[in-house]
Amino acid sequence: MDLQAFKQIVLPVQGRLFRLAKLFLRNREEAEDTLQEVLMRLWTKRQQLDSYHSVEALAVQMTRNLCLDKLKSQANRTTDGNTDLTTVQADDVSPYRQTELADSSALLRRIIGDLPDPQKLILHLRDVEEYSFEEIEQVTGLTINNIRVILSRARQRVRDSYLKTNDYEAGY
């Protein structure tokens, strides 16, 4: 694979790889370092990339594995990034509503962060990155039925945790 082919195939997915790394590591600088390392590994393996069915699946798998290795070696250092899922810039939104949205997004980040790694990965790939089930199958090596079950359980767990936290009237 030459430089031009590498740019056309690998570089367009670096945004997805970065978001995946940031999901796992929860730190922008660590995610950037991980992305750089994955891109370097792919570049050094560029002659063998043609033998892979999906270079994107390989890159996602490499990113996931590298993130898990970093988490293990850093004794699960969790520094919360300063990024919000919601950046409300509309003039008609009250400060009260902005605070409410920020609190909800922080709660969702915490709930998703507490999911087991397979659920977190599949939920991110499907709902954030919008991968198809076949693409997730290539990345994870799981069957489509297993992916559907894991995704369903992850969504249910997020929903239940969110509703339990916000269900003031029931007294939970």
How is this fold's topology laid out?
Elements: H1 3-9, H2 14-25, H3 28-44, H4 55-73, H5 95-113, H6 117-128, H7 133-140, H8 144-166
Helix pairs in contact: 2-3, 2-4, 3-4, 4-7, 5-8, 6-8
How does this structure look, described?
This protein is mainly alpha-helical and 172 residues long. The chain folds into two domains: 1-80, Rna Polymerase Sigma Factor, Chain: A; 94-172, Winged helix-like DNA-binding domain superfamily/Winged helix DNA-binding domain (Arc Repressor Mutant, subunit A, Orthogonal Bundle). 68% of the residues lie in helices and 0% in strands. It is built from eight helices and no strands. It has helices at residues 3-9, 14-25, 28-44, 55-73, 95-113, 117-128, 133-140, 144-166. α2 (14-25) crosses α3 (28-44) and α4 (55-73) packs across α7. The chain is globular and about 55 Å long. The relative contact order is 0.11.
